[in-house]
Write a structure and sequence with these properties.
The chain is mostly helical. It has one domain. Helix 4 runs antiparallel to helix 5. The chain is elongated and about 55 Å long.
Length: 161
């Protein structure tokens, strides 16, 4: 099934991206607060993409796979709600971290980080309620990976300070 191959590819990319960012973090002498935050958001985004793709991949194999159109639609409804749950949990942890550090007072947190999560949640809810197909789920995963890649790019590029 093509959907499973896409999920495997996304999971592989998420792990690779997180691994490379770990290498960057290890070999950097000392990360600034901004670069540390970029690394953290990168790991959040790629972690969400990894767990959402692996959860859907493993669930698709339960009971011998999906056999008809009704099961296919039901599977993507459930998968979308599970992905929404994973995303909301990740947002809660990120928000708690921002509140503990009181960085919201300086408004230096990345608004695009939250916007991407809210957009993914809206896309998944729309998928669960109306579309009930794999392609919106894959687009949501791709958005998480795209943000993680942008974070990775800004993390590894030398600062212009």
């Amino acid at each position: 099934m093509v959907e499973q191959q896409i999920l495997i590819t996304i999971a592989t990319l998420a792990v690779t991206l997180a691994g490379f960012s770990g290498v960057v973090g290890i070999f950097s002498k000392e990360l600034s607060a901004v670069k540390s935050y970029k690394l953290e958001t990168l790991l959040f985004q790629s972690g969400v993409a990894l767990f959402a793709s692996l959860t859907a991949l493993i669930a698709s194999q339960i009971g011998g796979g999906i056999s008809d159109e009704g099961e296919f639609r039901k599977f993507w409804i459930i998968a979308s709600w599970v992905y929404v749950s994973i995303t909301v949990i990740a947002l809660i942890f990120a928000t708690i971290d921002i509140i503990k550090k009181e960085s919201f007072k300086k408004i230096n947190y990345d608004i695009l980080f939250y916007f991407s999560f809210f957009f993914v949640i809206a896309l998944l809810i729309f998928n669960a309620l109306y579309i009930q197909d794999a392609y919106l789920y894959h687009i949501a995963l791709e958005i998480n990976l795209a943000y993680a890649f942008v974070s990775f790019y800004t993390l590894v590029m030398p600062s212009k300070e």
